[in-house]
Amino acid sequence: EKLGIKNPVVIDVALPNIVITKNIEIPSIDPQEIREIINLQAGRHTPYAREEIIIDYIDIGTYKRSYTKILLIIVVNSVLKRHLEILNRAGVRLEQVSFSAESAALAVSKILKTDTEKIPAGIVHIDASFTDFMIVFRNKPLFIRSIPIGAQQLLDEEERYRAKFVEEIKKSIEAYQNENIEKNPEALILTGSIEGLKGMEAALGEEMHLPVNRISYMKNIAITPGALKTASESKYASFFNLIAPLFLSEDIKINLMPEEVKTRRAFEERGKDLIKTGMFALSFFIFLFFILASKIYFAGALLKKLEAQYTPISREAESLEIDFNKVSLIKNYLSKKRYSLDVLNELYTVIPDGVELADIRFDGQGKFAVKGTAESMSTVFAFVDSMEKSQYFKDVKTKYTAKRKDGSRDVTDFEIASLLDNKGNK
């Protein structure tokens, strides 16, 4: 409320001291299959039942071609539910539960400016009441151990806790080496609440036989002067576990949100999407309705205007159409009247010598037939060929031919049928 922030994206950072981590090997390289195996076997690595824990994992790498090394992350469901309850009462909606070690490993190269692509690095992050020891390789945490000694003990009771602290770091490195996860680190990086610690690098370097670099996480981040002053004034608390998730939120993959919360929110989001889709569809149909209604209205108005404008013209057009039909009828009548004469003239033209016609018939349906006598059969066929070549006759066929004696000569009676082709009408 004081900051005046509206709709913030809130991330809950799960620290290593409330998380159980296990380095295990999975006989698969398929992400879906790895997830299924972890869901089945996660309960074997904790004293809790499967429904009492939330799990996720970080893929460390593949070896032996078919095995995947993973860092299994387990947190008790009740712990995160308490976080959710507190935030809900405060009116804050939690979006993600990240694992601080994942973002801290990503921050090693971007904030601490340490390259871990070829050789792992040991990160000793000192907070107020605990210390996180991590082995980071290729921006991934390979090994994590939470030590219950922090800046309060090391600053207020240095003589009592320094030796214990160094011994715990040594045990952590030995535990990492015993699990044979990856290469051994060649350097240690000391960060967090380290401003008041004197001689810690020398103590760790002497015991571990490794170079120890003191790096302040505040030097390589862009924050406001006020925030920098507040963080610097804190004697015990380290803000590294909070700053890293904020700066690297887009690269974080681990989400330890309880499954029932994920499911409920998925249904909520789906419901919102359905409501949005319904509203969009309704708006679209309303918009479409108004467009169609406006088009119909304007089309109707235009139609009335055109009707008023063209009614006199339409009446004149109807009168002209009646006159045109009369003229067309007369023209058609005259053309058909002449057509019979044109057909007879064409028949006279195509008839060969030696043919006598006894009967000529044609009707209004376009059927035409001639009967007659020819000197020979070949003359009949020549007559048929001449008619077929004419533009007035089509489908010319010989219906019959019959030879007979006419006095002293042989003649052939015939009948030819065809259809009249109107194309011949000029």
Structural commentary:
- The protein is 45% helix and 26% strand.
- The longest helix has 92 residues, at 259-350.
- It is of the alpha+beta class and 426 residues long.
Structural class by sheet pairing and helices:
alpha+beta
**Approximate helicity band:** 40-55%
User: What shape does the CA trace take?
Assistant: elongated
Major sheet: arrangement of strands: 8-7-6-9-10
Distance between the termini: 100 Å
- Total strands: 14
Strand content: 25-35%
Low-confidence stretches: none
The whole-angstrom Rg is 52 Å
Order of helices and strands: EEHEEHEHEEEHHEHEHHHEEHEE
Major beta sheet summary: 5 strands, mixed
Number of separate helices: 10
State mean pLDDT (0 to 100 scale). Answer: 87
Oligomer: single chain
SSE layout:
Blueprint lengths: L9 E5 L4 E8 L4 H11 L11 E11 L3 E10 H13 L4 E6 H11 L10 E6 L4 E7 L2 E8 L3 H6 L1 H21 L9 E5 L7 H9 L3 E3 L10 H9 L6 H8 L11 H92 L4 E8 L4 E8 L2 H13 L3 E14 L2 E12 L6
Parallel strand pairs: 1-5, 6-9, 9-10
Antiparallel strand pairs: 2-4, 3-4, 6-7, 7-8, 11-12, 12-14, 13-14
Helix pairs in contact: 3-8, 5-6
